[in-house]
Design a protein that fits this description.
Layout: H1 10-13, E1 24-26, E2 32-33, E3 46-48, H2 49-56, E4 65-70, H3 75-92, H4 98-105, E5 122-128, H5 145-148, H6 161-175, E6 180-181, E7 188-190, H7 194-200
Helix pairs in contact: 3-4
């Protein structure tokens, strides 16, 4: 998979945040949004204004559309998911140390202190057709490395040729508007967070944890 830098890496966690204080906005007004992770408050459908505007500008082939699965995630939920996944790994790999478990868990769920979803800076999304039917992307959104045998990694070639092409279409469209991918999750893209800053060589992130 190449040299994948995880979000728990000191090269990411050491980057400071100078928040630009943009508001969170509801993307349901102009994007297709799936309801599988919907919460009563609608937090999942919110993103920082700058991220939302970039998604609005995305250009895709005729008949292909973005489908947002999750954007903003409250800190308490992020912490819960990280801890639950870490404990699942502890059961599966009992010989792992606490530090190793922390790093392994960060392949799939960001540690809360650097999580881009809690900043409204990250979006989990996929592609669909005119009827809202999801395209073949190789795995389900949110498939873990264990469940997918690594096929969730963006660069995985252990998927169909159609899925490889669809991932390329998604990447081309999102990179064109400035978003960066977390390479262990083909569906996870962000802008303005620490991982984006590390990838783009910026001195600071522009989005930090925020309350809806």
């Amino acid at each position: 998979m190449g040299d994948v830098i995880l979000i728990s890496d000191p090269r990411v966690t050491s980057i400071p945040v100078i928040d630009c204080l943009e508001p969170l906005v509801d993307v349901r007004a102009f994007l297709r949004v799936d309801l599988r992770l919907a919460d009563p408050a609608g937090a999942f459908a919110h993103l920082r204004e700058g991220v939302a505007e970039r998604l609005r500008r995305v250009v895709l082939p005729l008949g292909v559309h973005l489908m947002v699965v999750e954007g903003y995630r409250p800190v308490a939920l992020q912490r819960k998911w990280f801890e639950e996944y870490r404990e699942t790994l502890r059961t599966t790999f009992p010989d792992m140390s606490s530090d190793e478990l922390h790093v392994a868990a960060s392949r799939f769920v960001s540690p809360v202190e650097v999580a881009p979803h809690t900043a409204g800076a990250a979006v989990d999304l996929t592609l669909c057709d005119d009827d809202g039917v999801e395209l073949d992307m190789g795995t389900e959104v949110n498939a873990t490395p264990e469940q997918s045998d690594g096929a969730c990694y963006t660069a995985s070639t252990d998927i169909s040729a159609e899925a490889v092409q669809n991932r390329k279409v998604l990447a081309t469209a999102l990179e064109a508007v400035g978003l960066v991918n977390y390479p262990t999750e083909w569906w996870h893209w962000s802008y303005g967070d620490r991982y984006w800053a590390m990838t783009r060589g910026r001195e600071a992130a522009v989005y930090g944890p925020v309350e809806l």
